[in-house]
Specification:
By secondary structure, the chain is mainly β. It contains 8 helices and 50 strands.
Length: 1003
């Protein structure tokens, strides 16, 4: 043991003799310009390796190698300050000046950090106190409206995550969301993060910023940094809130009196089976009585000593959906430990997080939503004897309340992420990092539809899937049907990289070179179904009690035969940053990725980037002007890839079951090819050019950035239909299409008023994007330059589609009949292909281009007011210029069927003789623009209370206070992600207005 100590001692003396010099301990506090402490500020010895972070009181302790050293103090949103130690003083109070500029922020980038003023790339940062308030468990919703170019659409369903699209859709694959990196761990499921544990979120936009992540970065990268402990003091933090939600809007359907008047006026009549003299509001009947309640609790403990720190937290959230039986709850435990060793030359980090989520879904949710608006108000919920009312004679007429109460749809998910990091400080400005991480997601899903569902005729019970999927029949077996599955996904990553940070006079160099190895195993598990249960009470908990063998024609569903996947990614990467006098900045990076998901001939790809910036305010000719405080011009280009959105074995030949065939007196299993091999399947490549300017004017009163970008995706991967002579299965996944996105982003921040008692800080972001599919062909592709798609299959709409993939048009291009009013006989007419008018339009032939679901621009406007101890935040969000295909309205605009299905109030003037009134057409395409008062929060800070309570803050938040829109549907915030954006198709989960009361306490 003694020999080992001597060897270690000699090793570190050899590496860095100066590190053993006498050190001086400095303490102090960091305050903002109002005298309030700044927790989490960085304190660094200039030119050295010693650093510290302020605790929740803003205090710090740091050991410096020279009593006359210079401390560099920085915090997000404040001007970096350099403090020269005077040698005789050991305690300092450092006051930072707030600035609306982003140039002084510390930004997390791939495999490193940097200050915004020295960035050459497009990066947006959001601090924890800038994130959206509310009953939110999703990082995407936390960022909604906060970042220019980030389009986030959120469902009212608490069990559904938000859709996030950055700078427009880049692919025809379903995977369009950004790549998430949490505390340096790539590819983390963001459901693992508690919102209360977040410190900052950095959104890397252009390819020069994201290329260091190679084939996973085509849709942008979002870096999330969570809290860490502070030295010396133990800190306890508790926060909670209680929320109450109510539906903010519903469709204006006819009530019983209105519908009776309409049918009488038009000589229609209800069938006796439906008309029971009721007046039922079916939309209300499927809602939870009163308010939907929500609550959240977060308790954290942090502290540390001279050579280490820790942070631990436990979060619990429970959110009721507004529909009956809909609920979501999540518990997250998080532990982060950092420990220095060998005179602080080595730092070990352990980060462990476990999330347990329970989703109580609405059984057959989309069918329930459809039935709640189409069911006749003259039909009751229950019969006189208490049983549920049903009319099994009428096709597709199901009691939505009975469906909810006789079905169960639950999912339990356990998500574990663990990482162990080692950082070694080496001589000459080098440092070495070794990061090991492991992620495991276990999901357990169960569905049970009791014997009541067996009454529904399987010949006409269709599901109602989200677009672009087409409906299909659902068979509930006999005497109840159960489904159970359990799947596990795990991810193992090893990353090793060497950093070099060195200054030579006016020259600064930062470099990183590294290696990454990753292996993913997805869908490791099983599924089974059963039917014919002796009682309904078993639910999905005991499949063994079912007896499917006695049910003729029933087949056990063992799930997707391709659920299990295993893929591997191996990468090398490098980046070099050069800085001359903090005036001229250059950056270059390259990553080489090898992925098993691609064809054997194209498994390796290269992803380069280059960027440069000129800090104009540093030039001599700018020194005498007083208008600009900061002014930086930057430009970049880079290429990234996409390796998600398709199966790990997409490029390989796969054979499987093809049904049965009759041979020698019996049915035998048939097997053959069901997926064609493509050895040439290659990466999707997205190249982005970006020009930007960052500025601060009027002595920090106003700052902002403007970015112009052009993004082009080539070799888009898509499942093309092909000639069966060439490919026996009739389709192949291949590269073939191109897509472009061009846009502008503007972000402005200002503090117009700042006095001793009152301040007003405001920020505005604006983004505009134009998306276009520029190529949609492949050497094997036989479908021309377009693909018609999105088929909701509403009543009388067989074969009708709403959108098209088309060269020269954007993703989300509507392609449908063009409504031309009514003819002299009062019948709806349409513009034929040749421009004439017709009352008998041909599906797919007399179609016309009719606008796009893509927004023309997005806007977010954030305002923060403080008066003494009061604070008020008001946040507006807007989406403009997009179209919505209101297929829901079309399906409820059928006056000829008013005796069997309810209709909208504003269809009262329609004639039942007009059998064209409801056809999917431009009549039901509406402007989807809106402005929403998304969030308003009023808080009061009591400050320090007593001996042990350092801070108490109470606040009240209102979400979705109002929305200004011309859209006639429930809400204009219709799905903007995926490949079928902007379609409202009888599946809209009601939006809510939330009132929330919260508490933050620091002990």
């Amino acid at each position: 043991m003694e020999k080992l100590k001597i060897l270690l001692f000699a090793f570190f003396v050899t590496l860095s003799f100066n590190s053993w010099a006498q050190k001086t301990e400095i303490t102090g506090s960091v305050l903002d310009d109002k005298g309030m402490p700044l927790p989490g500020a960085n304190v660094l010895e200039n030119g050295g390796t010693n650093s510290a972070m302020t605790d929740f009181d803003g205090t710090f302790k740091i050991s410096v190698s020279d009593k006359n050293a210079v401390l560099v103090v920085s915090f997000v949103g404040f001007v970096e300050q350099r403090v020269k130690l005077d040698g005789a003083k050991s305690k300092y109070t450092i006051r930072l000046t707030s600035t609306s500029t982003n140039l002084e922020q510390v930004v997390v980038v791939g495999y490193g950090r940097g200050t915004r003023k020295n960035l050459t790339t497009a990066v947006s940062s959001v601090k924890a106190d800038q994130l959206n308030n509310g009953v939110i468990a999703d990082v995407g919703q936390l960022l909604q409206g906060k970042v220019a170019g980030l389009n986030v659409s959120v469902s009212g369903d608490p069990t559904k995550t938000s859709s996030v699209v950055l700078r427009g859709a880049s692919t025809l694959n379903s995977s369009q969301g950004p790549f998430y990196v949490v505390d340096g761990i790539p590819g983390v499921d963001i459901s693992i993060i508690s919102p209360e544990d977040i410190v900052t979120v950095d959104v890397l936009k252009d390819a020069a910023a994201t290329a260091i992540y190679g084939n996973r970065a085509a849709n942008g990268v979002i870096m999330v940094t969570t809290k860490r402990g502070s030295k010396d003091k133990t800190q306890v933090n508790y926060s909670n809130y209680f929320g109450f939600e109510k539906v903010s809007n519903q469709l204006d359907m006819m009530n019983a009196d209105q519908l009776r008047a309409f049918t009488t006026k038009n000589n229609l009549s209800f069938t006796p089976e439906n008309d029971k003299g009721a007046n039922t509001d079916w939309q209300k009947e499927i809602l939870r009585p009163g308010y939907a309640n929500s609550m959240s609790h977060n308790l954290s403990l942090s502290g540390g000593g001279e050579h280490g720190n820790y942070f631990a937290s436990v979060s619990y959230m429970d959110k009721e959906g507004v529909l009956i039986g809909n609920n979501f709850s999540r518990t997250i435990a998080h532990l982060a430990i950092e420990q220095n060793a060998f005179d602080d030359h080595v730092k070990f980090g352990l980060n462990v997080t476990n999330s347990n989520s329970v989703y109580n879904n609405v059984p057959q949710r989309n069918v329930v939503l459809l039935q709640s608006i189409s069911h006749l108000p003259v039909s009751p919920v229950r019969n006189a004897d208490g049983t549920y009312f049903e009319n099994f004679i009428q096709t597709g007429y199901f009691n939505p309340v009975a469906m909810i109460n006789h079905g169960v749809d639950d999912t339990k998910a356990n998500n574990f992420v663990g990482s162990f990091t080692t950082e070694v400080k080496l001589p000459f400005g080098f440092s070495y990092n070794l990061n090991l991480s492991y992620q495991q997601l276990n999901s357990l899903h169960g569905e049970f539809y009791d014997s009541y569902y067996s009454k529904y005729n399987s010949a006409n019970f269709y599901n109602n899937p989200d677009p672009p999927y087409t409906r299909s029949l659902v068979n509930f077996g006999v005497n109840g049907a159960a489904l159970r599955n359990s799947y596990q996904t795990n991810n193992t990553i090893i990353e090793s990289f060497l950093n070099w940070d060195k200054t030579f006079g006016n020259h600064k160099i930062k470099a990183v070179v590294g290696y990454s190895w990753q292996e993913d195993v997805l869908g490791d598990g099983f599924q089974a179904t059963n039917t014919n249960f002796p009682v309904d009470d078993v639910s999905y908990n005991n499949l063994a009690l079912g007896n499917y063998a006695s049910v003729s024609g029933y087949r056990v569903d063992f799930g997707d035969s391709r659920a299990y996947q295993k893929k591997r990614l191996i990468s090398e990467f490098a980046r070099l940053n050069y800085n001359y006098k903090d005036k001229y900045l250059l950056q270059g990076s390259i990553r080489r990725d090898g992925g098993s998901v691609f064809g054997i001939n194209n498994q390796w790809g290269y992803f380069p980037s280059v960027g440069g910036a000129w800090r104009i305010e540093k030039e001599n000719f700018m020194q005498n002007q007083k208008f600009f405080t900061d002014l930086k011009l930057r430009g970049s280009w880079g290429e990234t890839g996409n390796s998600s959105g398709f199966n790990a074995y997409t490029a390989q030949f796969i054979s499987g079951s093809l049904g049965t065939f009759y041979y020698n007196g019996q049915q035998s299993g048939a097997y053959g090819p069901n997926q064609a091999a493509n050895p040439d399947l290659n990466w999707e490549k997205t190249a982005t050019a970006n020009i930007g300017v960052d500025f601060t004017v009027l002595k920090g009163i106003l700052s902002g950035s403007v970015d112009l970008y052009s993004k082009k995706t080539t070799d888009m991967i898509y499942n093309y239909s092909v000639n069966p002579v060439l490919v026996p299965v009739g389709s192949i996944v291949a590269n073939g299409g191109n897509m472009t996105n061009k846009g502008v982003e503007v972000a402005l921040s200002s503090t117009p008023i700042r006095t001793e008692k009152f301040s007003w800080t405001t920020s505005l972001n604006y983004s505009r994007n134009k998306n276009k599919i520029t190529k949609l062909t492949n050497p094997y592709f036989i479908g021309g330059d377009s693909i018609r798609r999105v088929q909701p299959d509403g009543g009388g709409q067989t074969g009708s589609t709403l959108q098209i993939f088309k060269e020269g048009k954007p993703l989300g291009q509507f392609f449908t009949l063009q409504y031309a009013g009514k003819n002299a006989a009062g019948v709806s007419q349409y513009v034929a292909k040749d421009g004439t008018l017709t009352t008998n339009p041909q599906i797919g032939v007399d179609y016309h281009y009719a606008g796009s679901a893509q927004p023309k621009f997005l806007m977010g406007w954030d305002n923060n007011f403080t008066y003494k101890r009061f604070d008020l935040n008001i946040f507006f969000r807007g989406v403009f210029g997009n179209k919505i295909f209101n297929a829901t309205r079309a399906d409820l605009f059928r006056p000829s069927t008013a005796m069997t299905n309810n209709i909208l109030v504003d269809a009262a003037d329609e004639s039942p003789n007009d059998l064209n009134a409801y056809k999917y057409s431009t009549r039901f395409i509406e402007d989807g623009s809106y402005i929403r008062l998304d969030n308003m929060t009023l808080g009061y800070d009591f400050g320090k209370v007593g001996k042990y309570i350092k801070k108490i803050r109470l606040y009240e938040t209102v979400n979705n206070l109002f929305v200004i829109t011309k859209y006639s549907g429930i809400d204009p915030e219709v799905e903007q992600g995926g490949t079928a954006p902007g379609v409202d198709s009888n599946n809209f989960y009601p939006k809510t207005r939330t009132f929330l009361f919260g508490l933050n306490v620091i002990f």
